[in-house]
Amino acid sequence: MNDSQQNQPENNQSLYAAIDLGSNSFHMIIAREVHGQMQVIDKHKEMVRLRAGLDKNGKLSEKAFSEGIACLERFGERIKDIPKLNVRAVGTNTLRNAQNSREFLNQARVALGHNIQIIAGREEARLIYLGVAHGLPNNDEQRLVMDIGGGSTEYIIGSQFNYSHLTSTEMGCVSITQNYFSKGKITAERMDQAISQCRLTLRPHQNTLKKLGWDNAIGASGTIKSIGQILELNEWSESGITLEGMNKLKDALVDAGSADEIKLEGLKDERRPVLVGGLAILIATFIELKIERMAVSNNALREGLVFDTLGRLHEEDVRETSVQAMQKWMKVDLQQADAIAKTAYTLYKQAHNVWELHSSDYDFKRLLKWACMLHECGIAISYKRYRHHSSYLIRQADMAGFDQQEQLLLSMMLLNHRGKFQAEVFSELDKSLAKKMIFLTVVLRLAVRIHRGRDSGLPDPVLVIKDTNQLQLEFDDNWLEEHPLTRMDLEVEVKRLEAEGFTLTIT
């Protein structure tokens, strides 16, 4: 436990918060850990409608931008006393794609008081499944879990807490509504066109999903909950969601001509603007996957975030599993990776206080370890320019548990772990983070250089930082003389670092 946690009131230590910056709505959930279980104590949702606020150039409009920031300010006030390590905030489809996403995230971080992680579609699907699974009986049934967001729809096959397939599709209740039901007008022809397009979007994934199979289909998200409630209250379905019931809802919407005009039991005003798009996606899914009935889950992505955060704090971090899987896939030399990681950690311990390698947003020690574990994965493609291959692989791969920023930081480190130090790649980060990442990369470079000979039993070097950019690397007597290749490599590194303003002395 760090100092900031120790200074928190005792009753806040067990509190966790998860914030989901969705394309249609922002959600916040606050829960308390009780004997290893999560007890929800507060929920809040605001219909920010980021996706609807995208202009023709793919930028968030001034209205959507400001309303999103204002919402996060309110969220930030509510969670200000919760320990920082217990808070997770993620952005999904719209923030993945908006042209001015970075500007929004810079202001959003200040408003919320916490870093916001942009997650890929598959990571979104993983967290959704984790949240839904924690609300279901712990049995061996195979499940199909579906979540309709504002800009994407996720499909997951899994059993208990383990998934076997994740997919994210580029269709959501907001985007489909915008594309096929402009100005809120609903006709039978438009409905058929929307359903057909959704079927085409899902079709490439159809065979894989059906081949894996499922015992029960479960829907998450506000759209699916709303449709389930409407079918039940209007007696269009006896239990859960059925295609027959949805067709009755579709006919009612077509007869009304607009979701704004129709009067239905269970239809909330906040859901009207996107109901028809979500209905088209759900009908298409039932047809393509031949689903007979779908149950509705009360849990979704934010609950998954809470459980994932709890796992990280209890050393059950899925990111470790992802790193190991990448090592295995790319046939990484594990002994060499472990040796470099051990030396890198020794150097890190000697440098982290002077270089202030601390952050509430990033675990620099773990980033360094993962970089050591993965820096040679590009060799499986080609030794020539392998650092470029490693960098590309890690930036582009779907790695469960990692957000896009973490993968970006690792990618930057891997590109710079040897060869010419391309410090300019860090310029897209804010100045404080860029400076720390350069320092962290220096540690990685030194560890890699020291282990160039792939010898076992190397002594622990001593790294002395006389001034921020003045370094001295010390070895046991005569060790460098006995390892001339390493000495030559370190002498090359002296020149490489000198070009970036560092002075390195080796003794």
Mean pLDDT: 92
Strand content: 15-25%
Portion in helices: 40-55%
Strand order of the largest sheet: 3-2-1-4-5
- Low-pLDDT segments: 1-10
Ends: how far apart?
A: 37 Å
Number of strands: 13
Counting helices, strands and paired strands, the structural category is alpha/beta
Give the CATH class of the largest domain: Alpha Beta
Determine the CATH superfamily of the largest domain: Exopolyphosphatase. Domain 2
Shape: elongated
Largest sheet: 5 strands, mixed
What oligomerization state is this entry in? single chain
**What is the CATH architecture annotation of the largest domain?**
2-Layer Sandwich
Overall description:
The chain has 507 residues and is an alpha/beta fold. It has 3 domains: 117 residues, Nucleotidyltransferase, domain 5, CATH 3.30.420; 162 residues, Exopolyphosphatase. Domain 2 (Nucleotidyltransferase, domain 5, 2-Layer Sandwich), CATH 3.30.420.150; 142 residues, Hypothetical protein af1432 (Orthogonal Bundle), CATH 1.10.3210. Helix content is 48%, strand content 15%. The strands form 3 sheets. The chain has a 5-stranded mixed β-sheet with strand order 3-2-1-4-5, with helices on both faces. Strands 8-7-6-9-10 form a 5-stranded mixed β-sheet, with helices on both faces. A hairpin with a 4-residue loop joins strand 1 and strand 2. Helix 13 packs antiparallel against helix 14. The chain is elongated and about 85 Å long. The relative contact order is 0.09.
